[in-house]
Amino acid sequence: MDVEPDRLIASVLRIAPPEPPCRPIHLTAACSKVSSGRYKVTRSKNKPLTYEQANPPHYLFVRKGFNSFNTSNLKDGVRPSESAMEDMFIRKFISGTWHNMFLSEVIIKRQLNMIRISGIVVRNILPRKMYFLIGYTEEMLTNWLQCPVKLELQTTDSREDVVFKYI
Amino acid sequence: MLSLCFLPARAAVPSARLVCVRAASGQPAAGRTDDPQFRPLDIGRRREVVQQARERRRATLPPPRHERQPVNQQWGDVWPAPRTFHPDAVPLPLRQGFVKRPNAQAPPGKHANAELMKIANFLHLTPPVIERQCRALAKFCTPWPEGLTDERLDELRPLEVITQDFLHASPTLRHPDARVVSLKVPLSCLDLTETDRDKLLRLVGDRHDPKTDVITLTADRCPLRRQNRDYALYLLTVLYFESCKREPWEAELRTVADAEKFVWAGSASEAAVAPLGAAADVVNSYGEAVTRLHNEGEDESTLAEYRKAVVALLGLPEHVGAN
């Protein structure tokens, strides 16, 4: 036969034909570029960045603080995965409840059996509505996470207050 | 009629959008402002209206707390518990943040600064507050007794109970490893005979440290620390009293071949030497030499001692067998 038996079988069985064994090498320099947590500079230099966005992730614990504080990752700490999943849930819930109102990242601190959530919120709704949102958030999260949840927010007038630089 | 159709639509009917733009800019539409029937259509939030509303809201807000609070207030009452940093309550002019050119740009201030909110602050534990708490606790404290040194404590309280507490924050209050209780007891403080001690060491196994002569009992089978502590004390009591008891089958178990150390009294060696009829002290020294040889092994000093004892026992001249 003019066709290799492997390829013939592969075509009959309708599976991908086996690749010939080879070990490729880089013929040019490998571009191992990290692009996480970095923002592209705009032409008109009008993109606002907060302090947290302006410092890429390798500045954590150098120029930036952590957003989440718990004892799970100490030696002999308990429930690290549950804490991480709860943190993700809390952030999703907050971003969905407070529509476009959080100007900073959600900061989650676990102390004793309490969860203390803080962040910077813009004052674009009535105070009465804000009180409702705070109560709603605390109540729902307390019920879901089965521990006291306290919200300690800081409010500010305008969105320019959190801008650190423009790129 | 036909001629009207060819007129451009724009000239015939001005669009609503054009009217609205003219009204927002503040200039009167041509011939429209005084007309009560045709008010200008205003769609959307006009910028001045929004800004005026914001100014009004800002004006009605009271000044921040740090401008209103009296200077002689008790800070411990203002910040009684751990709380996220709030710039309006804390009167300090703080700045937090890294700037590449500090001469050109000041570090970010305390308002709307997420970094200041992230870090743990100890504003609830200022020195006056700590002093107040210490003064409140002082009435429950008495000075340490002078004669109670470490050695005296070891005599009076030889039992050591070791527990671990963990830095722990979770919905459940109990850390699973915090229930483990260890008990350390030096054997010297227990009233034991040789056989009692031997039995206890067999029961305890490798929980006994031969260097320090301390038994360590670890209890973790109960869910609570108190229960584990009680169980460990119970275990110690049972161990002690069991090692003092003698079961009838124990005597049958132990034969001379099982003994860890050679004991002269009642041994075959003693029975063999008795017919020789030597003096008691010679027999005793021979007994000691044999005991040392068995228990400590063969080396220069034990063999020399054995040779001397045998020579004395058999009444041979002293140089026999000497190197």
TrEMBL record, chain A:
Leader sequence segment: none
Pull one GO CC term from this UniProt entry: ribonucleoprotein complex
- Keywords in alphabetical order, please: Mitochondrion, Ribonucleoprotein, Ribosomal protein, Transit peptide
Which BP terms in the Gene Ontology apply to this protein? translation
Instruction: Tell me where in or outside the cell this protein is found.
Output: Mitochondrion
Q: Which InterPro entries match?
A: Ribosomal_uS3m
Q: Which family does it belong to?
A: Belongs to the universal ribosomal protein uS3 family.
This one is known as 28S ribosomal protein S24, mitochondrial
Species this protein is from = Amphibalanus amphitrite (Striped barnacle)
The organism that produces this protein has a lineage beginning with: Eukaryota, Metazoa, Ecdysozoa, Arthropoda, Crustacea
